[in-house]
Amino acid sequence: MDLSSLQVLDLSYVDLSLATSHWLQVVKMLVSLLELQLADTNLHTIPLFLPHLNFTYFLFLDLSYNDFSSQPPQWLFNISSIVELILYGCHFNGPISSIAGGSSFCNIHQLDQSVNEFIGGINELVERSLSRCGPKFPNWLQTQTHLETIVLRNIGISETIPNWLWKMSPHIHLLDVSHNQIRGTIPRSYACEVFNDISKHLNLSHNNLSSPIPSGNQFLTFDESIYEGNQGLYGSPLPIKCEAPTVEKYGAHQGLDEENSEDKYENFRLFVSIALGFIVGFWTLCGSLVIKKSRRDSYFGFLKNVKAWIVMVVSVIVKRLQRMIAKDGN
How far apart are CA 224 and CA 147, in angstroms? Predict the structure, then answer.
């Protein structure tokens, strides 16, 4: 039986106690696998080393309720495409530092590592494994309910700070997002809820934030150094107390008509260039497809394969959401 195209494999609650470590060698042969569920299968052994990892499109892995009672392997955290990793109740142990150094967590949306015996805790895992993330905030952080420290310094983030990060107020005592290219504003409603006592610390320095600094609660006691390097921030404790005047608001009208005329001419040239480029590109592609049947067959075959892959990925995600909703309902 050819299983090379198998995309979903669910063996949850099947007794695999006699499989020892050979189960992983079999899984490695399923090169198209997207989802693997091995919850409560009586597995006790997982190889620490896996020289040839071939999970190109792997999205979901559930190893929960298996008593491994060992250190987790590094390769488990190096599957770059994985979106959900469920390790609940695996009884993994050992220092977080031994696995976090090369971890690839940037794409993960859900990470469940509850009921394990890690030394160092999830805070150390976060600090060590996010050194190359960006340009977006890693979504899986919002599923972690025991974080006290979030350090996302200099990791290439260029989006706005999401509301879910501000809403993690009951747990966060330190949030450091300095030396990125974070844009947007500091939302007063959320930020003041997060940093409302003297024990909490914040560092927003050297980003692209532009807004007034909230004037209530802990923000009045922060040192100005946590805001420096943001050209658009103003208000206490910064020396700039109001928004800087701009050309658009206060004048510099001399030569404005000439500039508008030049802008219109540049816009016309841009429109003509785009139109010509579209016409040439469109007929180059369509002409080759009309003239040569082999190219036409290859092109539409490629589109068919892409469509099938997208449909399968969407169905897997929908299935997971339905299972989570049903689980919560129970």
Answer: 26
